[in-house]
Amino acid sequence: MTDKNKIMLVASPGGHFVELSLVAECLQDMHVMIVSTYDEKPSFMYGDEYFQVSDFSRDNAHVMFKVIRESYQILKKNKPKLIVTTGAAPGLIMAIVGRFFGIKSIWIDSIANSQYISLSGKIAKAFGIKVFSQWESVAKSSNSEYHGKLL
Length: 151
Hints:
Oligosaccharide biosynthesis protein Alg14 like; transmembrane; alpha/beta; globular; Rossmann fold; membrane; transmembrane helix; 22% strand; 7 strands
């Protein structure tokens, strides 16, 4: 497997991870690395390797610094060609840290965000990360891209 085929998929547990699993199904000819906060990769998720990062949110934002360090270590060692995330906070950090390594990233905003792009999606755009909405009207109003829905 060449380095060109290394893709890192990052998501928080729950709906974000379920949406990401649909992306993973389409990448079975690639070397897929999964990153999440689960203790181990859920059995329903396709992926060649699994890495765990700490979870955080606005309520415990200080943990963000630990996630930055974890993301840096994972990316430095594994060097994917692309990061794809469906959110939330750990996916945003991985995508931002990836920018410092020159790694392109795609942010797919959750289908739950049917009225507005998420705060994390707005932050991703500010860092030059390509943002996709699963709602055409949200994509237009947020100057994001729309190519359909995952669910």
